[in-house]
Amino acid sequence: MRYHIDNDLLAVVCDDLGIRVIDLETKNIIREFWGHRNRITDFVFSSDSRWIVSASLDGTVRTWDLPTGAMVDIFRVQDIVTCLAFSPDGDFLATGHVDHVGIFLWSNRTQYTNVSLRNITDDQDIKELSLPSLSGGLDSDEEDESDEDAEFADQDKLDTVDQLADQMITLSMEPRAKWQNLLHLDTIKLRNKPKEAPKLPEKAPFFLPTLPGAKAQFDLDAAKDEKDQDATGEKSRQLNFSQLNTDTQFAKELRAGHEANRQYHTFVEYAKSLSPSAIDVEIRSFSIDPELSLLNHYLEAILYMLETRKNFELAQAWLSVFLNIHGDLIVSNPTNSIHDKLQSILDIQGAEFGRLSQQIHYSLCLIDFARRT
């Protein structure tokens, strides 16, 4: 018997090898899960009460999805699982096994990558997995690895739609940690700061010119031109400021989107390919001119994301980081047009929040009515 206090759900195991989930508020059975062929040894709720993971004497570990009532994962182990436990964040599943005194940890891939959860039937082949080793990996043979690669390839073939309808707020397909780490990047850097400063090498063998930007890219063309100039003896000691361009690829994509009638699709896709720390560096390294051009272009890109209702959570995270970094500069320029763009963003945020809140309250009323009737 397991009780989830947040949702007031009680799950019980019965002698008929079934798992029944009871809503204690309505005193009704809302889900029944069948499939185990032998006595169930243990089961556990996930932290968000979305899944139930169960193990039995038949050697299988099954994952049940409560909202859909389907089995979304199953695997078999040689040594029977005797107990299960989820980590508070749902990142790991801990298992104990017969004839083993240790606790084995299984990583939850849905926390880091996009995994397609589909209904699995009992007549499908059940994959047998080896227990995690001390090195942190799995002791699997080449056949198991090829089967897993084939499964991932089949999942990659599934077609996904960017947006089902223009009126729907759509989130990105990026992992949750990608935008969450951006919001707490300062805390992460402080936590990972080394106790002792790294020691520099005595002599670097050589230096290569690099292109500006968050990604390290070598400017081989510049090195070649410099070599040619040395060979001909025509190298000039005079710096030509007219050819000096400090724009990174991030800034170039922003300017290109502004010139393309404020269509920032290419910029958004490029920004999504960057890591959280790279995005933070790019925002901090904006070149500042009297008109605040790049800052205005950046807010236009945020407006584009909000108006198209795509990548909504990324827009919120990127906007939050931008305001934290350049908030003082924006306040010190009260006559700049950037304030008009911020007001437009505020209006869209309020309108979308009101529309979404209305739909949520409408759905909650329907659910409450259905549960009480």
From TrEMBL:
SMART domains: WD40. Residues 162-371 form the WDR36/Utp21 C-terminal domain. GO terms for biological process: rRNA processing. PROSITE patterns: WD_REPEATS_1, WD_REPEATS_2, WD_REPEATS_REGION. Coiled coil: none annotated. InterPro entries: WD40/YVTN_repeat-like_dom_sf, WD40_repeat_CS, WD40_repeat_dom_sf, WD40_rpt, WDR36/Utp21_C. Residues 131-155 are annotated as: Disordered. Pfam families: Beta-prop_WDR36-Utp21_2nd, Utp21. Keywords: Repeat, WD repeat. It comes from the Eukaryota. The keyword Repeat applies. WD repeats lie at residues 33-74. SUPFAM superfamilies: WD40 repeat-like. One of its GO terms (cellular component) is Pwp2p-containing subcomplex of 90S preribosome. The keyword Nucleotide-binding does not apply. Residues 139-153 have a biased composition (Acidic residues). This is U3 small nucleolar RNA-associated protein 21. It comes from Choanephora cucurbitarum.
